[in-house]
Design a protein that fits this description.
The structure holds two protein chains of two kinds.
Chain A lengths: L8 E5 L4 E6 L7 E8 L6 E6 L4 E2 L4 E4 L5 E6 L8 E9 L11 E6 L1
Parallel strand pairs in A: 1-9
Antiparallel strand pairs in A: 2-7, 3-4, 3-8, 5-6, 6-7, 8-9
Chain B lengths: L4 E3 L2 E4 L5 E6 L6 E7 L6 E7 L2 E5 L7 E4 L6 E5 L8 E8 L7 E2 L3 E5 L1
Parallel strand pairs in B: 2-11
Antiparallel strand pairs in B: 1-3, 3-8, 4-5, 4-9, 5-6, 7-8, 9-10, 9-11
Classes of the chains: A mainly beta, B mainly beta.
Chain lengths: 110, 113
């Protein structure tokens, strides 16, 4: 199974953009890149996913490198409520399997 | 529908006792997942249902663990003869077929004394 690598933690200031990196050098052509986040004492929450093209939704943007070996989750204007652990996961389309790493703990400073 | 609900939210039990967790998924979702999560780690896959059929079980799921999803609706996860190593958060998630988006419940935290 292809794996992802993320920094253990990152800090950002409130109301500034946040760029969360993810490396996935062994990604295969059928792997989608998924992002989830987990707030303290809650279950994970879906953020966004994509295959090749950059994706935008109301929560975030996903920028995917041309060679697909890395991606970046962009929070355009971080708030204190965005403090969470962010997981970058690869998933084959339609496959049940998601392999979760330890994620990146995002700390937002007021 | 308010999302995925899990019950109980917290369970403290003594080693050797049996425990059962219930998950009510979003009603139109045909896929249901169970995960286990320990402190500081990401969720670990336990098992997966499509409708009422259990299609995959992790090697983590020893014979003390059993999961069911009768009629393809709610699901139960039972742990028999609990051990201290079973202490964890048990997460349930549901998904409409092939949408790529899992909806998680808030989890059931198990503490085995």
């Amino acid at each position: 199974d292809a794996k992802t690598t993320q920094p253990n933690s990152m800090e950002s200031n409130e109301e500034e953009p946040v760029h969360l990196p993810c490396n996935h050098s062994t990604i295969s052509g059928t792997d989608y890149i998924h992002w989830y986040r987990q707030l303290p004492s809650q279950g994970p929450e879906y953020v966004i996913h994509g295959l090749t093209s950059n994706v935008n939704n109301r929560m975030a943007s996903l920028a995917i490198a041309e060679d697909r070996k890395s991606s970046t989750l962009i929070l355009h204007r971080a708030t204190l409520r965005d403090a969470a652990v962010y997981y970058c996961i690869l998933r084959v389309e339609g496959n049940y399997q998601l392999i979760w790493g330890a994620g990146t703990k995002l700390i937002i400073k007021p | 529908d308010t999302g995925v609900s899990q019950d109980p939210r917290h369970k403290i039990t003594k080693r050797g006792q049996n425990v059962t967790f219930r998950c009510d998924p979003i009603s139109e979702h045909n896929r249901l997942y169970w995960y286990r999560q320990t402190l500081g780690q990401g969720p670990e896959f336990l098992t997966y249902f499509q409708n009422e059929a259990q299609l995959e079980k992790s090697r983590l799921l020893s014979d003390r663990f059993s999961a069911e999803r009768p009629k393809g609706s709610f699901s139960t996860l039972e742990i028999q003869r609990t051990e201290q190593g079973d202490s964890a958060m048990y997460l349930c998630a549901s998904e409409a077929f092939n949408t790529g988006e899992l909806f998680f419940g808030e989890g059931s935290r198990l503490t085995v004394l």
